[in-house]
């Protein structure tokens, strides 16, 4: 290697080395070997080498020359080694400085030694401290004394902010954060007015908690005490968001600090909160169950430098982080209303430390962040890090990682840890996080390291299990007092002014309606939900379409671009659909479902369909997304119906049920005008999202007055394929039914599917729709529909006997059933030539179709036995639900009671043997149709 070439061409070498770091193959083999050897001689302690020159620029360096005028190569090499060491030390602070930061207000965290941050680790000694070195990319200075460099690095990376961002692979984002942090040089430079606002917000946070603690002793409130900096953080975040053009902010959080956020950020009137504590709020029975005060949501408008910003705090149950995907779905719907502008609506999620590390929905929601169908342009995550879980949990028991926030690295989110007792550092980090989110539309995490002054709730005694921590907490000066002392020392406020502010705030709680920034509670929602409130199931609608429209739509969604070649099986399916449109074949399930979407889209109703394989359909019946056989190019016919049609979005979702279903619920609860559908790959996959079903889908209207028209398609049916994927657990949904909260349907024909989907949007109300969708029926020769079923009648909640050979006056046995088992019963009845048994299908199980069943019963005057037939085991399916409800129709006399025919009770949803499955089917068909008795009678005759 020619050292003199290096000396006078250092900039060229720096660029060459950066190229080598990106791709070694892009540089000459000689240089490649040199750089590799250099790295071996100076091994790095970190896995990533920064894209910066490892050697210093020597333009101003005047090396010693020998008496013969030759450069002293040994001295040059020694200096180069020192220079490289300095750059590596700078890099180490960027990587690991956070491990030495002063983050814990209690100073209880054990901080282990970090050898990488010791200059001696790189061979730098005290003698080098006064030497001047090139600082590489250290922002704001090119050359500096080593002692000054280290002092600056400690101030930036090891003070009350600990920044983790070097795991990000995008160099632009990494450099942006680096310049933001290093450019500030560890100084926050807030003006006097901002400092006073911080103190005012801290005073509000503490003042409310003090008041509640003395007035409502022992009542649960999940106090924010110890984490009061959350309030100035949120306040500044919202103000900055408004200044950057954000129009709406949607906040999701669990219990900790929720009441404080409601009063001091969103402007809920203190007297309303106090009434809830005193139990004076009136409960309207027509509004359902209601919910406790620390689950409640709220909305308001707040003034910001950029104009009014609409704030919405989402309702949330006690399932900690489950609100996260719901908020993301709501934000996505709001962004789409605003022209898909990701910077118009900001999601903020507030977490607990143990929950952020422990709840699986955190990972699932983070995994949505960068996907096409679920991305919201970046979420600001705020972790209120109490450094303790419930009450007894030690961090060693609550996670396997150094920080509770480490899971966020999976999506390369920057993580900013900050000491909650340094409010100015909190505000600096808040602005950094907000600016980053708006610049890059990526998730960002603020880890607010604080403590919890009381136990998990105010009735808990934390010192019983955490004596050391709570001894320290009891001695800890509150954040408001600490900051007031600091401002008094700076001469910004008087010595007693902090305490006076607390007294004034507490007094204002009794006299003022609102103690937050001025808010407007008379905001105008972009979506008017009033047309959907107070309506009833009986308000039906016309879901039929004309024959001309039907045939035209099928023609449009079966027309392909010129030269677009399909896979042979898909081409066959599309050809069949063309024939269906011409009337040459009856419509099957896939065609009827697609027709429903097409008719809604053409009429201006958007459709959003998501699920793990919903583009094709798990059972290859849908094919909403077509793939060119040679190129793989995709084509979506439902997006090409016309220039005026509504948007159709189909998403093959990630392998998640809980987060995706929560997202879709959130979307539907913010957009009543889009048909929102989640399809489980198999019905039992919804088991993984049961908390969403229990806490939101079935009860959000009753608890919080939140409406949703979400549709869940759950493939269901017993085909001898084993315990898994047979049952969608129909019984679970029926058990949740009450107060007209949801709809549960089990359609048996393509036309029924068509009308059911259309009425979901055409009727003037929004209720979740749970559908047991078929598997084998998708291609069953009997499960087809003809034109008149689409043009002449709508959805039938009950389908009476359709065989003209079954005469009502002759019928002595009525079989009631739902779903696929209907076709098994029909085939068995035909096989045995039975004509005195009628088969009635319940297509809608809830709301229970009492009137329709009464009308059916009236048509069969000589019936002696009414039997409920199901393919599910006796303890599952609809049997117990139907038994209770049909007693209303049949009366309570023993002779009129509904009987049962089906599989015996089972701990498992289905058997694992195809042979046993078939035998069970024969057995309960025998029971339902009395085949043995009929055979015996024939033998006797």
TrEMBL record:
InterPro entries: 2-oxogl_dehyd_N, 2oxoglutarate_DH_E1, DH_E1, KGD_C_sf, ODO-1/KGD_C, THDP-binding, Transketolase-like_Pyr-bd. Keywords: Glycolysis, Oxidoreductase, Thiamine pyrophosphate. CDD domains: TPP_E1_OGDC_like. One of its GO terms (molecular function) is thiamine pyrophosphate binding. Its EC number is 1.2.4.2. One of its GO terms (cellular component) is cytosol. It catalyses: N(6)-[(R)-lipoyl]-L-lysyl-[protein] + 2-oxoglutarate + H(+) = N(6)-[(R)-S(8)-succinyldihydrolipoyl]-L-lysyl-[protein] + CO2. Pfam families: 2-oxogl_dehyd_N, E1_dh, OxoGdeHyase_C, Transket_pyr. Residues 587-780 form the Transketolase-like pyrimidine-binding domain. Its cofactor is thiamine diphosphate. One of its GO terms (biological process) is glycolytic process. SUPFAM superfamilies: Thiamin diphosphate-binding fold (THDP-binding). E1 component of the 2-oxoglutarate dehydrogenase (OGDH) complex which catalyzes the decarboxylation of 2-oxoglutarate, the first step in the conversion of 2-oxoglutarate to succinyl-CoA and CO(2). PANTHER family: 2-OXOADIPATE DEHYDROGENASE COMPLEX COMPONENT E1 (PTHR23152:SF4), 2-OXOGLUTARATE DEHYDROGENASE (PTHR23152). Homodimer. Part of the 2-oxoglutarate dehydrogenase (OGDH) complex composed of E1 (2-oxoglutarate dehydrogenase), E2 (dihydrolipoamide succinyltransferase) and E3 (dihydrolipoamide dehydrogenase); the complex contains multiple copies of the three enzymatic components (E1, E2 and E3). Belongs to the alpha-ketoglutarate dehydrogenase family. This is 2-oxoglutarate dehydrogenase E1 component.
